[in-house]
């Protein structure tokens, strides 16, 4: 049976732990933005079982929401609170590389579609501009290389 530290049973985690890069931390520490309803033991349990990391210490702080004025009503409003966890691990922690949105998440296709829709809303004929043609060719090249890679694997 797996060792449990916290109260939550995590089978298919729907918790969002956002990594916050911080140069002031030691090499074996990482900062995360975590949900407000999670305690230190749950954070340790989550990181240990989902990412196979040996956690030695967890420190948490809850930051109050920022105060701002509503420009329509003039009333003071407070944004939602934020919980930050600083986790100390046995091993050194290396921040993951930032994802390339154009390649990894279909960013080029999204740019092409938004540009096409914007042109259509303006009443333009569906005659592509130079920018649209360049985007379209990049999208087609990406699709072609992805198809070639999938056929090589199969």
TrEMBL record:
<dbReference type="Pfam" id="PF00276">
    <property type="entry name" value="Ribosomal_L23"/>
</dbReference>
<keyword id="KW-0689">Ribosomal protein</keyword>
<dbReference type="GO" id="GO:0003735">
    <property type="term" value="F:structural constituent of ribosome"/>
</dbReference>
<protein>
    <recommendedName>
        <fullName>Large ribosomal subunit protein uL23m</fullName>
    </recommendedName>
</protein>
<dbReference type="GO" id="GO:0032543">
    <property type="term" value="P:mitochondrial translation"/>
</dbReference>
<dbReference type="InterPro" id="IPR012677">
    <property type="entry name" value="Nucleotide-bd_a/b_plait_sf"/>
</dbReference>
<comment type="similarity">
    <text>Belongs to the universal ribosomal protein uL23 family.</text>
</comment>
<dbReference type="InterPro" id="IPR012678">
    <property type="entry name" value="Ribosomal_uL23/eL15/eS24_sf"/>
</dbReference>
<keyword id="KW-0687">Ribonucleoprotein</keyword>
<dbReference type="GO" id="GO:0005762">
    <property type="term" value="C:mitochondrial large ribosomal subunit"/>
</dbReference>
<dbReference type="InterPro" id="IPR013025">
    <property type="entry name" value="Ribosomal_uL23-like"/>
</dbReference>
